[in-house]
Amino acid sequence: MKKLILATGLALASPFASADLLALHAGAGYWQGEYSGQVGNPSISAEQLGLEESDNMYVYLAFEHFLPVLPNARVQHTRISSSQTSRIDQTFTLDNQTYFANEEVATDLDLTHTDLTLYYQIMDNWVTLNLGLTLRLFDGYIRAEGEAFTETVDIDQAIPMVYGQARFRLPFSGWSVGAQGNVLSFNDHSVTDVSANVGYTFRSAIDAGIELGYRQLSVEMDNGGAHADMDLKGPYAAVTLKF
User: Fold this and answer.
1) Which pLDDT belongs to residue 20?
2) Number of structural domains, the chain?
3) pTM listed for this prediction
């Protein structure tokens, strides 16, 4: 009996103790982002193109297990798109097509992507710390339709990123605070996607929760005349489930 009590105490005290042998996490959220930055070469600002706010959705699913050698897995899909029409007051070029000042331009910007993440759970107690790698699959485009012609540039790239997530659970309260990020900086590509949040979990057979936070996505890509340097940031709200 004493050995059992001692083993239990050591497991609870260890920062590497795992609360579950198997766990499935799922969630869905709404993210209201505000654009800033510029596109084209020579470029034009997002404000000039009428890109202001975007209502975006995301869903994710993560599987965690007790095997220390194999990584856990997480998949997240984020839908980001905005369509605006504006009369521009400066000239810009998108992939060798030039749009002139005082021209009415309809712009579609799509930064939709899917994240495939493998990670290890370094800590899982009052503090959770996950570290790993993400492969971000962009499946979007930039389209500008002027008075004379339309030009579309695909944003179709696979980008490896460093992944990290940290969460601190306030003991016996259901409340938690956390942060998450995917980061890459390599040659002409730079992607930073970070968020911070506060959440509450209703403990039951299936732990359901709500999460409120702030997310910022910064994307810099250079594909010849299709240079893009955009920021999208704003609050989000999500529901979460743990099985």
Assistant:
1) 65
2) 1
3) 0.88
